[in-house]
Amino acid sequence: MKTTLDIPERELAEAVKNTHAKSKAEAVRVALRELNQRRRLADVAARLKGALPGFMSQADLKVLREDVKWESAR
Known about the structure:
3 helices; mainly alpha
C-alpha cells in the first residue's frame, strides 16, 4: 500500500543506518515489523507474569554465573 508520510530526515537516516536497510522504504518496513514484534512480545510477557514455574530465578542465575566464574578461575 502506498502512503505519503512526512518523516524527519534525521530519524529516517538513523533508521536506515540501524536497520542496515538498502532503501528508506525498507527501513520503514523493518522498523514497523520490529515495533509490532516488540509489542506482541510485551503483551505475551504481561499475560504470563511469572506463570512459568521451573524457570530460573534471578538468584538461580546469579549462583550459576558465580559457579562458572569459579570454574574458569581454576
